[in-house]
Amino acid sequence: MNDADVRRNVETELKWEPSVINAAAIGVGVKDGVTTLSGYVQSYFEKWGAERAAERVSGVTAVVNRLDVHLPNSLARTDEDIAAAAVNALGWNTSVPDGRVKVEVSDGWVTLEGDVDWQYQRDAAETTVRYLAGVKGVSNVIGIKSPVSQAIVSADIEAALKRSAAVDAQRIGVLVNGHTVTLTGTVRSYAERREAERAAWASPGVYSVEDRIAIGV
User: Fold this and answer.
1) Is 112 inside any structural domain?
2) Residue 140: inside a domain, yes or no?
3) Do 42 and 10 fall within a single domain?
4) Domain boundaries, position 100
């Protein structure tokens, strides 16, 4: 599949994605599988949805998201309103540990700080604020400080990869050094690479994942 085919497929996938309101406003460029999205969208959630849509397309090896968020007047909010809404929403989400995530907002851009025990809690915090009106972007700098003392065993992560229907575990290598997991090998798509990374993050005590997986055939 050449770059022209990938570009056409990404454009079609953007039209297919329900969260993308106006696919015609998004430009797509592809070079050696690296896909760049440019143009504008009406919300951060739409920007996020466009990136996920591009990642799903076969032949995409990486996504560069240069979309600008142009909020319509109906979605405009002050930083104070966004911060208050974010704190309230995080407080209602049982996946986010109470009082451990701090929120800062500057010109509609939300920064999440603090620490949690698990990657899923970190993801939950970002998901919570992603949908809020007025948000133009999210920086998730929440750290992971797990109280779990159990040693990370590469065999456990390898077993998790084998259980996943979306990953060919035989093509992925797992190296563990303390709280850091390094993934190597080759997968068939960007989406498969993300799934392998998700599986690694699910192991107790993982503080960071270095994803060195290549995308090939």
Assistant:
1) yes
2) yes
3) yes
4) 75-144
SS3 82: helix
Q: Which of residues 144, 172, 198 is at a domain's end?
A: 144
For residue 50, what are its two tokens?
């466009």
* CB neighbour burial string for 111-139, b if at least 16 within 10 angstroms, e if fewer: bbebebbbbebbbbbbbbbbebebbbebe
Place of tokens 């994803």: 211
Give the sign of the dihedral formed by CA 154, CA 156, CA 212, CA 96.
negative
105 CB-near residues (< 8 Å, 6+ apart):
79, 80, 82, 83, 86, 111
pLDDT at 52: 95
C-beta atoms surrounding 212 within 10 Å:
10
Question: What's the token pair of residue 183?
Answer: 């993934």
Query: Consecutive 10-residue runs of the chain (217 residues): their mean pLDDT?
Result: 95 96 96 96 96 94 95 92 97 96 97 94 96 96 78 85 90 90 93 91 87 87
How much is the pLDDT for 138?
Answer: 96
Q: How far apart are CA 143 and CA 133, in angstroms?
A: 25
Q: What CATH number does the domain containing 62 carry?
A: 3.30.1340.30
In a domain, 62, yes or no: yes
Does residue 149 form part of some domain? no
User: How far apart (Å, rounded) are the C-alpha atoms in residues 144 and 196?
Assistant: 19
